[in-house]
Amino acid sequence: MTESVITLGRRALYEDVADWLRQRIFSHALKPGTWIDEIAIAQELGISRTPLREALKVLAAEGLITMKVRRGAYVTEVDEKELREVYQMLSLLEADAAATVAVQANIAQKQELQTIHADLEAQIHDREAFFRINEAFHFKVLELADNRWRLQIVTDLRKVMKLHRHNSLLKQGRIEESLMEHQAIMQAIIKSNAETARYEMGKHILSGLTAAAASF
């Protein structure tokens, strides 16, 4: 990655650096608590520390990086209390989104969700693929609910949740439980049952919290 003059209509270099760091964090190549070695990263990417520091500010705003005065930056560590708070907020916001979709989505939009759900069922034996498609399903619900403020908040909360990435799916039998929960959500949406969709989505996310909290 080399520095270049930023031109109108092109992404700033620090945005590319932020993307690179974000993926390193989500893949756990940079684990929670890891100190960010700015000099080493700048050398690895072939850039100065200026765009790197701008990228770190972006990730700090997202909650992925914690910055300490005179101590530099490190990957945020999420304790059990914080994780519970994230999941509880997600359960409220995404449950409301599911209820909205149940009554507002048209047949074609519900078919989109069914297609993603079918892909999820097909990947029950591939944890990485299951995790990816599961996230796609949740974001499709948010997209169809069509509230950009809710989408923005949930996007940020899910980034923090991914610091504890996959742990909720490591529990024995959790993938199978998650799939059954998705089936219940999908059925409620198909039947345009808003309150059942709300209940099932909220229960699904809090079940994920129970599984994730068990790893602490």
Layout: helices, strands, pairs:
Elements (H helix, E strand, L loop, with lengths): L12 H14 L11 H8 L3 H14 L2 E4 L3 E4 L4 H25 L2 H16 L4 H19 L2 H14 L5 H4 L3 H17 L3 H20 L3
Helix pairs in contact: 1-3, 4-6, 4-7, 4-9, 4-10, 5-6, 5-9, 9-10
Pfam families: FCD (PF07729), GntR (PF00392)
Keywords: DNA-binding, Transcription, Transcription regulation
GO molecular function: DNA binding; DNA-binding transcription factor activity
Could you explain the architecture of this structure?
With 216 residues, the protein is mainly alpha-helical. The protein is built from ten helices and two strands; from the N terminus they run H-H-H-E-E-H-H-H-H-H-H-H. It folds into two domains: 13-75, Winged helix-like DNA-binding domain superfamily/Winged helix DNA-binding domain (Arc Repressor Mutant, subunit A, Orthogonal Bundle); 80-213, GntR ligand-binding domain-like (Four Helix Bundle (Hemerythrin (Met), subunit A)), CATH 1.20.120. The protein has a two-stranded antiparallel sheet with strand order 1-2. The longest helix has 25 residues, at 80-104. The model is unreliable at 2-9 (pLDDT under 50). Residues 11-78 form the HTH gntR-type domain.
Structural key phrases:
mainly alpha; DNA-binding; Arc Repressor Mutant, subunit A; Four Helix Bundle (Hemerythrin (Met), subunit A); DNA binding; 4% strand; 2 domains; single chain; 10 helices; 216 residues; Tscrpt_reg_HTH_GntR
Offer a quick outline of the entry.
With 216 residues, this protein is mostly helical. It is 70% helix and 4% strand.
User: What percentage of residues falls in helices of 4 or more residues?
Assistant: 55-70%
Q: Strand-and-helix sequence, N→C?
A: HHHEEHHHHHHH
Main beta-sheet strand count, sense and barrel state: 2 strands, antiparallel
Total number of β-strand segments? 2
Fourth-tier CATH superfamily name of the largest domain: GntR ligand-binding domain-like
Q: Please identify, by name, the CATH architecture of the largest domain.
A: Up-down Bundle
Rounded mean pLDDT score: 90
Assembly state: single chain
Q: Based on CA inertia axes, which overall geometry fits?
A: elongated
Question: Radius of gyration in whole Å, from Cα?
Answer: 19 Å
Number of helical runs? 10
Number of domains: 2
Distance between the termini: 37 Å
How is the largest sheet built, in terms of strand order? 1-2
Query: What would CATH call the class of the largest domain?
Result: Mainly Alpha
> What is the CATH fold-level name of the largest domain?
Four Helix Bundle (Hemerythrin (Met), subunit A)
Derived from helix and strand composition plus strand pairing, the structural class reads: mainly alpha
Q: Could you name the ranges where pLDDT drops below 50 across 5 or more consecutive residues?
A: 2-9
Strand content: under 5%
